Amino acid sequence: MIFSFPTNIAAVLRTNLMLALVVFSVAMVVSPGCSGRKKAEQAAQEQRDKTIQGALSSLKALMTDNGMTVPQKRAEWNRIKNLNLNHAEVDEWLDKVDAFLKQEEQRMAEEKLESERLAAEKEKAKKSFQNLLTYFERIANASSVDDANRHIQEALGLFSSAQVPVLIVISTGANGSKDYDRPTTIRKYLDYIKDQRKYERQAEPLKLDEQGKIKELELIKQ
Amino acid sequence: MSMSRYIIALFFIMGFSAAGLGQEKSLEITPQRKRAIDSLALEKVRDLSRYITLVGNKSTPFSEAQRVIDRAVELFSDDAQIGVSSLNRREIRYFTVRRYFDHLMALNYDQVTVEWYNIQYVSDLELQPDGRYVGVITIFQKFTGQNNEGLKYEDTTKKDITIYVEKKQTQIGGRLVDYWDVWLGDVRVAHTSK
Fold first, then answer.
1. Is pLDDT above 90 for B1?
2. Contact check, Cβ <8 Å, B37/A165
3. Among B36, B50, B71, beta carbon nearest to A179
4. CATH number of the CATH domain containing B158
5. pLDDT in the model for residue A29
6. Average of pLDDT values for A59-87?
7. Is B61 near chain A, with CB under 8 Å?
């Protein structure tokens, strides 16, 4: 007796085999694509982690004296902020560094203002001394005692009082230390110019009071 | 007991000597500073010379002369004396500084000129044990007195002026300032000639 499958069973088997082949083929095609995306996702995550670590490291360095100027630090802070990392620790450090930089920027602004104020004061003191030198010259070359006394009275108007101290530097050491003559007052010094017909032509920056009058004078002997 | 006293006394003496040497060393000055102080002292003498000229000048107003005398007095130590000589008498008279200037103002001439020249050190400033520097500057003074009748007196006198220099400290504008105080001692007459 010859064993044979019924025709319908064979057809079913054939169909199932075909189906299995299709499923296998699809699995073979689809399976490698899925693995690549995971790798890409993993790489992207690694890259993000690396960026976050870099950002955190940079942010922490911005709080230290790392050789960068405040504007450079602010530019770096902006760069990190614009990365939009959306990471809690990074955001926390961004806030910390922002507060720190705001303080530094305010300090710098104050220093700039102070520096400008000092420069203006120095310029004012310089002009004041030029003005004073004109009086020294007039007193030393006065044609009479009355003439000299008139110039002395005018010159005293530049000072807080007639008792303003006058220091005269006789020499300056290599370390910047100064040797002075016996201190005197502006009144006596102006009389000295009248009597001796000579005066010092150089001075340290004048010290002025709030009204812009000279409150201390330090002359330098030539 | 006696030996231990000696040892303690010896330590004290050594301690004071060391302190003394330390003080002397701290008062020593660099050549640059020395030059500045020498120059300052010479300038004080030139300033005095000008004050004498001003006070001697009969055209100087009285009030100005008085003020100048005050300034001149400030150049000297309190007990300093100035010697005055004359070709007409042998002895040298010494006055306190203020009396010397009063005398100069009251001289019975219509015109007086006093000129100092050859102002220089004859004895360099030397550090003394008390911490002061002392030196001597010599000057030549040409004195001319003349009245309107044409009578004229002239002499040239060599004078030696003792100079004292001491480092002092004062407070200016809330800070301590070290300064070199230079003042003049006696002005002694060395000799007078025509």
1. no
2. no
3. B36
4. 3.10.450.50
5. 58
6. 93
7. yes
